Amino acid sequence: MPVPPAAIKSLDLIKKAMHPVILLCLLASCQSHKEKTVNQIIDSSLIVTSVEKPVDSLLTGETKALWINLKRMQGKGILFGHQDATTSGVDWKTPVIRSDVKELTGSNPALYGWEISGVGNSNNIDSIPFSALRNRILEAYSRSGVNTVTWHYNNPVTGGTAWDTYPAVKEILPDSSRHEYYKSQLREVGHFFQSLKTSEGISVPVIFRPFHENNGNWFWWGKGHCTRDEYIRMWQFTVSYLRDSLKVHNLLYAYSTDMFDSPEQYLERYPGDSWVDIMGCENYWDFQSGATISNGIAQLRMLVSISSARKKLAALTECGFDGIPVKNWWTQYLLIPIKDDTIARNISYLMVWRNANRKHYYVPFPEQKSAPDFMLFEKDSFTIFERDLKNLYVIK
Ligand code: BMA
Predict the structure, then answer these.
(1) Do residues 82 and 109 touch, judged by C-beta distance below 8 A?
(2) Residue 270: which of 44, 35, 11 has the closest Cα?
(3) What are the angstrom distances between the C-alpha of 306 and each of 55, 228, 341?
(4) What's this model's pTM, rounded to 2 decimal places?
(5) Is a pLDDT exceeding 50 seen at residue 4?
(6) Could you list the active site residues?
(7) What percent of the chain has pLDDT over 90?
(8) Whose Cα sits closest to atom 2 in ligand 1?
(9) Which of 41, 68, 108, 233 has minimal CB crowding within 10 Å?
(10) Coil, helix or strand at residue 113
């Protein structure tokens, strides 16, 4: 099995620090227990290092400023995010430009989620043209909004969707059958991120969250369809190819699981402190019923503890209630439980999913039953919408 880049780096450091004889013995034993050694090295990356450094030491100034400003804001408020906020709503779709959040509250969200499945083609998985996506991202940036991108990447072996769980991860790793194809896809991804340039030539910062919900079994990169080692190697290759080979320097990397029970479970597939900027989790379920909110809060508490020990940011990277059937859901099920918890309130942002149409939506429209409560949610001093944002792209 090829040694992942992190392991190579660690071996280099060990080589530099060690007496040559000890080193020879170590390398000899490495040959016979290569598999075990690789795992041990990956395990050691799970030890808290407390180094306050983004994944990419060559980050653009604006991206680094975003990272620093989000850190400074921890505990002071939570950015509210909406997937596809200005590309699709309950009654409209690009090329129209509206925002269901703004139409109700008078303000855009502070954070925008976007989807790049299909990158390289004209349209993404949800029929949004990439040209429009690019413009909406640039516009969000010009209003000091934060952009985050997910990738429901089609199965690279079968060509099926992200939900086609044929075990493809091992096939895209270095020296495997679909590796060159995977690199060609990453070039499309990198090209898209590099194309996000303002007229002044500034690269728009993006929080990239690939291979999300990795402890669920519904995506081909999920649990049950790849080993922990394969997942970590895929993650590390992806980051290092974008950053080191393609020289994409406007990305913060967010790692996310779905719901989890313990820090160990959360960290099971964690790629290591040098490979992650934001530690996220997604949780739709626990915030939908009074009986389970405390589970959701317990997970956010664990997330904040794990991430702050590592000097990372934490976020509820996806949540929401499809169709929002509960009148006071925004304040009573989401805002107050998080805000009132001294630890959970340190997450940087939360994001609800997209408004596709009147059968699949996460933000209310004027006559929807939770609309008044969503307006109260926006007015609360702890939620951050566009109108509450300072410039996140300069360091003061
Ligand atoms: C899912 C649904 C799908 C969509 C996909 C990617 O949760 O909203 O309709 O295609 O996300 O955006």
Answers:
(1) yes
(2) 44
(3) 17, 19, 16
(4) 0.88
(5) no
(6) 213, 318
(7) 86
(8) 354
(9) 68
(10) strand
